[in-house]
Amino acid sequence: MDSVAIEEVGIEAAALRAAATVEDDGVVLYPTDTLYGLGADAFSDAAVTRIFSIKGRANDKPLSAIVTDCAMAARYSDIDERVQKLIELLPRGKVSFVVKSNHTMQTGICRNAATFCFRIPDDEFCTALLRYCDRPIVATSANKSGAVCPQRIDAIIDQLGVDARGISLAVDAGVLPSRLPSTVIDCTRHSIRVLREGALRTADLMHVLRVIDARV
Q1: Cut 0.85: pTM above it
Q2: Residue 16: helix, strand or coil by DSSP?
Q3: Of the four listed, 40, 75, 168, 178, which is most buried by Cβ atoms within 10 Å?
Q4: At a CB cut-off of 8 Å and minimum separation 6, what does 138 contact?
């Protein structure tokens, strides 16, 4: 496993290294605006399979991705006007949206999937990585399935054990602050449901929904 420290090379250089790894079908351990994550080309069967193996994650539990903006997400999913408004009004980085796939891609995280789950990050490194890759990047917490995600690279590698060998590059941003994972919301029906409460409180989501619906 190669590694690069953001403190030593800067965000842009680290993002370029990570993007080259993604382009080469590798798996990247990288910092996000929530936790350290495991990333790869979201539509690479080989890389996505490797992430499932590293985490020991059940194959029927889908993975999510980070995207640059609503336009990138709309390449692969059906996003209606209401969801567009939610994306505009809710804070970046705190919400993952589950929407219907438009079946443009049927590989990687969209293989045999009817939905596409994405988050628009509020993080300099993630933004730079997406800019260089110009495609969705897998964003799943860097921990064994069911375990707590450590806040340091070395602790993550220790937890993953021999499976950490599946990681091609580790991007070290030091000790990340303690933060909640994103709130996951199901937008596949008119009645939007919270699948996991995290960084955004359900009460705040419902307030924004009422504002949107009042404008219709």
Answers
A1: yes
A2: helix
A3: 40
A4: 37, 38, 39, 40, 41, 42, 47, 48, 51, 63, 64, 65, 108, 109
Least Cα distance to 173 among 41, 35, 27, 25 occurs for: 35
Place of tokens 């382009």: 23
Render pLDDT for 8-21 as a digit per residue (tens, 0 to 9): 999 999 999 999 99
Domain ranges of the chain: 2-215
Contact 73, 79 (CB under 8 A): yes
Architecture of the domain whose range is 2-215: Alpha-Beta Complex (3.90)
CA distance 155 to 164: 11
Q: Which of 31, 32, 68, 34 is nearest to 200 (CA)?
A: 34
Query: How far from each other are the two terminal CA atoms of the chain, in whole angstroms?
Result: 52
What tokens does 120 get? 């628009």
Per-residue pLDDT tens over the stretch 19-45: 999 999 999 999 999 899 999 999 999
Crossing angle of helices 124-133 and 11-23, in 10° steps, is: 40
- Alpha-carbon span 40 to 27, nearest angstrom: 5
Q: Please tell me the distance from the alpha carbon of residue 216 to that of residue 93, in angstroms, as a whole number.
A: 26
In the chain, beta strands by DSSP E: 2-5, 28-31, 36-39, 65-66, 77-78, 95-101, 115-119, 137-138, 140-141, 169-172, 183-186, 193-196
